[in-house]
Amino acid sequence: MTDAVISPGKPASKRWLWFAVATVVLWGVWGAFAGISAQRGFPETLTYCVWALTMILPAVFVMARTGWALDRDPRSILYGLIIGLLGAGGQMVLFYAVTTGPAYLIFPVISLSPLVTILMSLAFLKERTTWVGWLGVALALIALPMFDFSPEQGFASLQGGSWFPLALIIMACWGVQAYFMKLANNRMSAESIFFYMMLTGLMLIPVAIGMTDFSKPINWGFDGPYLAAGIQLLNAIGALCLVFAFRYGKAIVVSPLTNAGGPLVTAVISLAVAGVIPGQLKIIGLILAFIASALLALV
């Protein structure tokens, strides 16, 4: 296990916070522009392929800094593949889920994945935090669904669709993934974890290609795959920072902070760029997310 990408002078107690903040910023910017590719005619399934390829660059960077010291023992390989397949597999299921149900109901369900992480971390890792931390966790969990739910559209789409069990599957995948990310960090390097995440992401490219409808027009121009690559690189580097945040921080704090902070940054950027005024529920969610982020940063 190495500290190749960390300055040894920084106190370990706050390393998790710097990486968590970096994740929040990167994922927040990514979230604000992630939909551009699909809007310009580049399918989300192919965007997944581009994302998987962008994972190579940060993986090579951190592995080169460690002298290519990859953890190859059976348990490390198992943990790495579990983390990678849960993350990429959840993304694959999401592609199908959004074709069967409304995104404004699917994403609030998925956003509760930190609850799975927190419960597993409490039960199996015996993690604890202060009352300030618990207050921040609670506010983050309350704020998360508010970013996507639209009360004016209601629950009319709840009946007759398969989206709800699919959303629960994605929530479970990403919640369990975060738990294993913390568990794996206790015995293997963060660089190795990310390498296996990159590897499993590449393994699922054929599945994404098989899900693509090539009978429809596809934008192969600069604002297609190339623009998608620039946007998805933010996602990939954010994922790398998340691995290091879990390495140094508690899962019960890192998971809600990054999941609430990212949408907060996305909303602020969207407001500044597009001049869109968020609804009342989203404003409440933004305020709660801001308070939660500040509380969790104090832990």
UniProtKB/TrEMBL annotation:
Keywords: Membrane, Transmembrane, Transmembrane helix. Residues 15-144, 163-296 form the EamA domain. The keyword tRNA processing does not apply. The chain crosses the membrane at residues 16-39, 45-64, 76-98, 104-125, 132-150, 162-181, 193-212, 224-245, 257-277, 283-298. SUPFAM superfamilies: Multidrug resistance efflux transporter EmrE. It is found in: Membrane. InterPro entries: AA-Vitamin_Transporters, EamA_dom, EmrE-like. One of its GO terms (cellular component) is membrane. Its main location: membrane. It is a multi-pass membrane protein. PANTHER family: EAMA DOMAIN-CONTAINING PROTEIN (PTHR32322:SF2), INNER MEMBRANE TRANSPORTER (PTHR32322). Belongs to the EamA transporter family. This is Membrane protein.
